[in-house]
Amino acid sequence: MNLKLIEPIFELSILFTRVLLRKTRTVKSGRSLKKLVVFHALILCLFCFVGRATAQIYGSDFHTVTVTVATITNVQVSSGSVSLSITGAGAVAGQDQMTVVNQTTNLLWGVNSANRKITGRTNLGAPQFALKLVALNPTQGTAMPEVTLSTTATDFLTNIGRSSGTCTLRYTGVALASQGTGTDSHTVTFTVTN
Amino acid sequence: MTKGLWKAAILSFLFSARLFGQQASTEQVLTLQVLEINKIGINNNAVTLIIDQASLENGMPVPAVNEEGVLVWITNGENKKITVASNNPSPRFLVKLVALDVPSSAGVGSPEVILTDNATKDFVIGVSKTTGRCKIKFTAAAKISDGIGSETYIITYTITGS
């Protein structure tokens, strides 16, 4: 409670009381007494109001708040492993090329930077058979034409800046009769880059 | 001096951490397996040979020839061959067949095969990691003494190991 604000009000109350007491000598004491009581009740209410208003402020201070959003880049696959097998089910007598397709896994990403793309590559430098990759139904960005994976990173999905999305990964294994039988083990790496 | 070095180190770390945040990668292990595949096929399911002419020189029936059939195959295995067999152990008439126009990369055509019984006989040999096609030439012949009639054969082609 700020006593400086209450002091003038208190003096006003005393002055009014003196005036009223002087008047009580010439008029009926009942009416004057009533006025005095009402007046002091009002003063009391005013003290309470002022007291309550001044009680909110004890002091104040401030500080600055800084919000920083860092670069966020996240990419992941729905499954860490994929298997393709050319068993002859799709082979045709007289046709040299045999293929198998897998599109059971998805790629997911979240990027808050502009101008980003996703590249794909394999770690296998000399595969026995060709492995192709294309993005199907991307929810964001532009899918590049189907590529044959190599150790050089190749554009897979472009224009994915400031977005989160998903696409289906379609792998196609290709073997020729002249290449015989065998197994290739790839580690396919997807990278978000600019 | 020490405080200044610590501040510099912290700032350097934060700066480099922000650089790392520019690129993210994920990996997926993929296995592509190719098993041995052997397939063979023919383009026509029925061949008809009609002996209806006689030679003017000796009066013997002129053999009938059919080259409409085409055999195709694929194998990614090694040391294969294509055999042929008839289901008729005692044919009445003479039926022969041979593979024509076999590409050198696809195999080697065997000599003409005479279907005298139901034994399996080599038709194309030296087939390894290849795809190929050839014509099938049928020759049907009859002697006067064989009379007239009709016989149906089921000819089976098989790609198998050598």
3D architecture notes:
- The complex is a heterodimer of chains A (194) and B (162).
- With 194 residues, chain A is α+β, with helices and mostly antiparallel strands.
- Chain A has helices at 3-24, 29-55; strands spanning 73-77, 81-86, 97-111, 117-122, 130-136, 142-143, 147-148, 154-158, 163-176, 182-193.
- Chain A has a 5-stranded antiparallel β-sheet with strand order 1-3-9-5-7, with no helix packed on it. In chain A, strands 6-8-4-10 form a 4-stranded antiparallel β-sheet, with no helix packed on it.
- Chain A is rod-shaped and about 130 Å long.
- The two termini of chain A are 63 Å apart.
- By secondary structure, chain B is mainly beta.
- The interface between A and B is large, with 57 and 34 residues.
Structural class of chain B: mainly beta
CATH topology term of the largest domain in chain A: Immunoglobulin-like
Strand order of the largest sheet of chain A: 1-3-9-5-7
Number of domains of chain A: 2
Strand order, largest beta sheet of chain B: 2-3-9-5-7
Structure summary, number of beta strands of chain B: 10
Biggest sheet details of chain A: 5 strands, antiparallel
**CATH topology term of chain B:** Immunoglobulin-like
Subunit arrangement of the protein: heterodimer
Write down how many β-strands of chain A occur, each being a DSSP E stretch of 2 or more residues.
10
List keywords for this structure.
heterodimer, A: 194 residues, alpha+beta, Immunoglobulin-like, 2 domains, five-stranded antiparallel beta sheet, four-stranded antiparallel beta sheet, 38% strand, B: 162 residues, 1 helix, 10 strands
